[in-house]
């Protein structure tokens, strides 16, 4: 068996490396090399009380003329159900460390009006609280991921939130939940303990935070048999010291996961991040390069985690990622509203391929943010709603959820800009429970079609079909006047050339998703 595999490698992978020069690329997939399952939670999302994500996003004015369940907007719910949204993180973000959950339960007109100090000093009327969020998750068919307040709250408040949500017996907080219309406990498992505790969540040192984490996590009881998955606040980008300190100080048994936040910008300057649709090749290249840095980050953070957790019990949870541009001119700059281009779809697709690759450690992730904030899936304008190019990527990638990762080798050229370069192509492959193989491929080169020999090592296949997302320019986007400019379409440039080989012609700037059986 081993000899057969070596011969196959010599026959296919080595020549592939020489073919790869010029316009031709070679992708080999090894369906017989067993790897880990890609957790569906990698495909998670995020909804913060920020700008128009919750209010005037998911949760609308009772008079808005759209289909609603209560005040929850149903067109958004349907769109997210269509991509099999696995989990939704809430209520922040920075907002989470100001949020007092007790303000958001009970009769809506008795709930206090507070100031959302982090995000534009707007009045937060608390009309969308815990029960409304749980209803949203129920409509979406996804798991809730709650972010607990460490900076301005106490372990007592946290314990009581868990009791309100999860206790089935006859206690004060369980009674409050029942009075609010929810007899049965919600059974929430995912809890993040603090958000960006190194920054907006309290400006803590990793030593201090680790102690706080240990204190708080002990009060997230597994009420009524519901097992809590406790997630610590991890580092900001390449702050390896934060990761190292937390992993050293917090026993593995106290952690289900530890988070990582990393945002892509189109420049090297956070005060001028670049515009969402008006950008040139310099910014296109810079944002792609910055986005691909995720691969190095995950590799290095995983290596640190391996020292303290060699059995990989602790998940790396990338619970904020995506491209962050300058806000749209004319909008409230604290609302972080930005358009979403073909470039952003390529970033999402490449990042998801990277997450799949690291799925032995990365078992959850949340794009920031689902509706009307940062790299959104959905944008709304009163009654109108549109799906962004990024939305279509999640739709095309949904078959990777809970599928088995397959060993993939890519031999391709580079995309050069000035003196710099990035690999022009990235790929991920998985096998679903029904035996079908799904391959997602990204061509980042704006100037070149890539013809790829896709080789399935050791097995033949009968059929191959696919979808493509592409556009003439990286800055193309869907507007409320032209909402279908960048949408996924049937892909026809695939030709089966042998029992186990297909030739795939990827247009410049494209994401291709293939189904093989
Ligand atoms: O997603 C927007 C903000 O970015 C979040 O509130 C915060 O956690 C991060 O800095």
Summarize it:
This protein has helices at residues 2-19, 74-82, 130-140, 155-166, 172-179, 206-217, 240-249, 281-308, 342-357, 389-397; strands at residues 24-37, 44-46, 68-69, 72-73, 87-90, 114-116, 122-124, 143-148, 190-193, 229-232, 257-264, 315-323, 362-367, 378-381, 384-387, 404-411, 414-417, 420-423, 425-431, 437-443, 450-456, 464-470, 489-491, 494-498, 501-506, 510-516. It has 517 residues and is α/β, with parallel strands linked by helices. The chain has a ten-stranded mixed β-sheet.
Features:
binds alpha-L-arabinofuranose, 26% helix, 8-stranded parallel β-barrel, 517 residues, 27% strand, alpha/beta, 10-stranded mixed sheet, disordered N terminus
Describe the structure.
There is one protein chain. By secondary structure, the protein is of the alpha/beta class. 26% of the residues lie in helices and 27% in strands. It is built from 10 helices and 26 strands. It has a 10-stranded mixed beta sheet with strand order 23-22-26-20-19-16-1-21-25-24. Strands 2-5-8-9-10-11-12-13 form an 8-stranded parallel barrel, surrounded by 4 helices. A hairpin with a 2-residue loop joins strand 14 (378-381) and strand 15 (384-387). Helix 4 (155-166) crosses helix 5. The longest helix is centred in the middle third of the chain and has 28 residues, at 281-308. The radius of gyration is 23 Å and the shape is globular. It starts with a helix and ends with a strand. Residues 1-20 have low confidence and may be disordered.
